[in-house]
Design brief:
Number of helices of chain B: 13
Keywords (chain A): DNA damage, DNA repair, Repeat, WD repeat
Radius of gyration of chain B: 21 Å
Distance between the termini of chain B: 47 Å
Largest sheet of chain A: 4 strands, antiparallel
Helix content of chain A: 10-25%
Number of strands of chain A: 31
Organism (chain B): Rhynchospora pubera
Strand content of chain B: 5-15%
Strand order of the largest sheet of chain A: 1-31-30-29
Oligomer: heterodimer
Largest sheet of chain B: 3 strands, antiparallel
Structural class of chain B: alpha+beta
Low-confidence stretches of chain A: 252-287, 426-440
Pfam families (chain A): WD40
Protein name (chain B): Serine/Threonine-kinase
Strand content of chain A: 35-45%
Family (chain B): Belongs to the STK19 family.
Number of strands of chain B: 9
């Protein structure tokens, strides 16, 4: 908690600097309000579908926004372009650094910065194209034509050996486009309906997580064909980590049940649904013979949600995955065991037609979910609602949490980008007035004697 | 895709009873589990809430249905939803309760105690007289093999056939008989998957969805979209055979209504967004 006492304790060495920093960051992140110091002037004439800040080391500064009218804009979040002065407060206005009016023919569903630097950005649209743009000249460098409308794209931010863009389309196959060669690298098939959301793993550069309109969430290792893990909502674990396995004893009874669970640590884990089918005597249909463990998963009908999976977000440490579905549920999955942790996030209503963008704070404490016209912040581990942010007039599509400044940016169907910043306590305003020697606070009189 | 080394029939159930050291667990297990809750030394909030709501289930005159509880009602009575989910999961695994997915609304689930469900199933089977007496063995196989071992809300066709075949030869006609008797339903999205259902519950489900709409419109018509709980409980719903407290709990749990403390008492307000 950021108080003067904590600052003194840090000075005296009673509180470690990293703990102090964590306390400041988390208290700022949980006290967000509609910002009265900053606003983005959005020139978009359509619903804002995607917001992203570049992930260059130590400086997340440029906000890339994409809208349904096929326009793309980039904003500088640090330096305002002008400020509107009114009698009591001045709001810093940020106009876009550039605004591309006709980037795509139809709506843009997602725009991403190139993970390494801000020299390139990638946009994906419903006009079946994924385009790579050079930021300085705002020209298209490469484009990929896909067979169906593109719902989402992702690039791995930790990849060093590949530069692949994974694309999620209304077609059942996930295609990987290679930046280095300008062609398609491979396709991943296994989903039974279109793919709505996808995300690269934040711990391994070769693992891709996709969520489909059929409600399934699949994990792919791109070095091998097929899915190696399929999340099933009926497989659950009580608690955020699975219980420790009992030590194997030489008795016969336990040895039959243990190999199934201990084999999950081997390199080819058994899919959870297969374990149940193993103890049958007579079968009407023989099980499909497959030569590869990954290929069998196309028969696996396990679903993670009862509707389409329209948002995926992995936590920064790579242990947990959040998925939101059109059945208006948000689920937290333990990636390593592949099970539903059964954390219940209180009632929400998620829009069903479009993919949405979730946001998680880097210390994995809060998750921000767009719920129709408002945005809700939930505690990640217990599922209680911490805050509801109401400010947009129509449904919110995307949100992005800027970890550098602890600000939240949200974009919605009402064509606005709103900024939510930590509420500054009144004490600092009085301090500022004293130090400058002039009267800046609203409460003070202009004509005191 | 490794095969487990268990070659005995009725795999999971047998191994659990063997590990408990109880050779004739079949008949006793069902009756033991129903009184297991009462013999426990410590209760969970969820278990108490379930027992309480089962006792409060309204008496219906037209249809005979054993008490069931909606999941949203549980959320409204116990504070911590995550704990409710986890307790429910462990109760499901112990086969004390059974969870069913309903087709009214987005994510409705009904919870029924195992002995209630078995009694409901018996009533349904008795009322449904099968034309072919040989096929009616499938009901016993269903009860013995499928219900005991499969605790999920749905089951796939190959698995259903393999579990039923532990009792004897299974054909498609047997599965059709189960569907006609009202114990299973085809899923709309996938022909190969079936939901478990509570038999003879159709009219109540219709009453449920209509009652919800009626209650919401009742509160919507007030000037400030709120009403005192005491006044609300006295009203009767026209379209639903279930009483109003059932619907109030259900709507509070699903987030459409919220309770507000006031000097008058508890107010029920329509929640916006």
């Amino acid at each position: 908690m950021w108080t003067w006492k904590a600052l003194k304790q840090r000075e005296d060495g009673l509180l470690r600097p990293s703990a102090f920093r964590r306390g400041v960051v988390s208290s700022r992140a949980s006290s967000l309000q509609l910002s009265n110091a900053k606003e983005f002037i959005s020139l978009h004439r359509g619903a804002i579908n995607s917001l992203e800040i570049d992930s260059t080391e130590g400086e997340g500064r440029y906000l890339l926004s994409a809208a349904s009218d096929g326009t793309v804009a980039v904003f500088d979040t640090h330096r305002p372009t002008s400020s509107s002065t009114s009698s009591c407060a001045s709001i810093a206005q940020h106009h876009p650094l550039f605004h591309l009016p006709r980037a795509h023919k139809f709506a843009i569903s997602r725009a991403l910065w190139y993970p390494v630097d801000t020299g390139l950005f990638i946009t994906a649209s419903f006009d079946h194209y994924v385009k790579l743009w050079d930021t300085n000249s705002t020209q298209v460098v490469l484009d990929y034509k896909l067979p169906a409308k593109v719902y989402g794209i992702a690039m791995s931010s930790i990849a060093t050996s590949h530069s692949l863009i994974a694309t999620a389309t209304a077609d059942v196959q996930v295609r990987l486009c290679d930046l280095a060669s300008g062609a398609f690298a491979h396709t991943l098939s296994g989903h039974r309906d279109g793919v709505m959301s996808l995300e690269w793993s934040s711990s391994t550069e070769f693992v891709l997580i996709t969520g489909g309109c059929d409600g399934a969430i699949r994990f792919w290792d791109i070095r091998r064909p097929g899915t190696f893990l399929l999340l099933d909502q009926s497989l659950s674990q009580l608690g955020t980590r699975p219980p420790l396995l009992p030590t194997p004893t030489p008795s016969n009874n336990e040895s039959t049940s243990l190999p199934a669970s201990s084999k999950s640590s081997s390199s080819t884990p058994i899919l959870p649904a297969q374990k149940r089918r193993s103890h049958k005597k007579i079968q009407l249909k023989p099980p499909t013979q497959s030569s590869h463990p990954g290929m069998a998963s196309s028969q696996n009908r396990a679903t993670a949600h009862y509707g389409a999976v329209n948002g995926l977000r992995a936590t920064a440490d790579g242990f947990y995955l959040l998925s939101s579905g059109s059945d208006s549920r948000l689920r937290l999955w333990d990636i390593e065991s592949g099970r539903n942790t059964l954390v219940n996030y209180e009632a929400m209503s998620i829009q069903t037609s479009k993919p949405i963008q979730l946001a998680v704070t880097p210390d994995s404490s809060l998750v921000f979910v767009p719920c129709l016209a408002s945005l809700k912040a939930y505690d990640l581990w217990s599922g209680t609602t911490i805050n509801t942010y109401r400010g947009h007039y129509e449904s919110v599509n995307c949100c992005f949490f800027n970890a550098q400044d602890q600000e939240l940016y949200t974009g919605s169907n009402d064509r606005q980008i709103l900024v939510w910043s930590p509420s500054i306590p009144a004490a600092t305003q009085i301090e500022e007035a004293d130090s400058k020697g002039g009267i800046t606070s609203i409460d003070q009189d202009n004509w005191s004697d | 895709m490794a095969e487990s080394s268990q070659s005995k029939s009725g795999g999971k159930k047998r191994s659990r009873s063997e590990s408990e050291g109880d050779p004739d667990a079949d008949a006793d297990a069902a009756s033991l589990q129903s009184i297991q809750l009462e013999n426990d030394l410590n209760f969970t909030d969820t278990a108490i809430a379930l027992q309480m709501m089962k006792a409060q289930f309204p008496k219906l005159d037209k249809v005979v249905v054993r008490p069931f509880i909606l999941r949203s009602q549980l959320y409204s009575s116990v504070k911590d939803r995550t704990q409710v989910d986890r307790d429910l999961e462990s109760l499901k695994k112990e086969a004390v309760v059974r969870v069913f997915k309903l087709n009214t609304g987005k994510d409705d689930h009904a919870i029924m105690f195992m002995d209630d469900y078995l009694a409901q199933m018996e009533n349904a089977v008795k009322r449904y007289d099968a034309k072919d007496k040989q096929l009616s063995d499938v009901f016993d196989w269903f009860k013995q093999y499928v219900i005991k071992s499969k605790t999920d809300v749905s089951i796939s066709h190959p698995e259903l056939c393999s579990l039923l075949s532990n009792g004897g030869d299974v054909t498609e006609k047997h599965v059709t008989l189960l569907i006609n008797a009202g114990l299973l339903t085809c899923q709309l999205i996938d022909q190969n998957l079936y939901w478990f259902v509570i038999p003879n519950i159709g009219s109540i489900l219709k009453g449920l969805s209509q009652g919800r709409k009626e209650l919401l419109s009742l509160i919507n018509r007030t000037k400030y979209k709120e009403m005192v709980l005491a006044n609300l409980e006295k009203k009767r719903l026209r379209l639903s055979p279930l009483d109003i407290r059932f619907h109030i709990r259900d709507l509070i749990g699903s987030g459409l209504l919220k309770t507000v403390q006031s000097p008058i008492g508890l107010l029920i307000r329509l929640s916006r967004d």
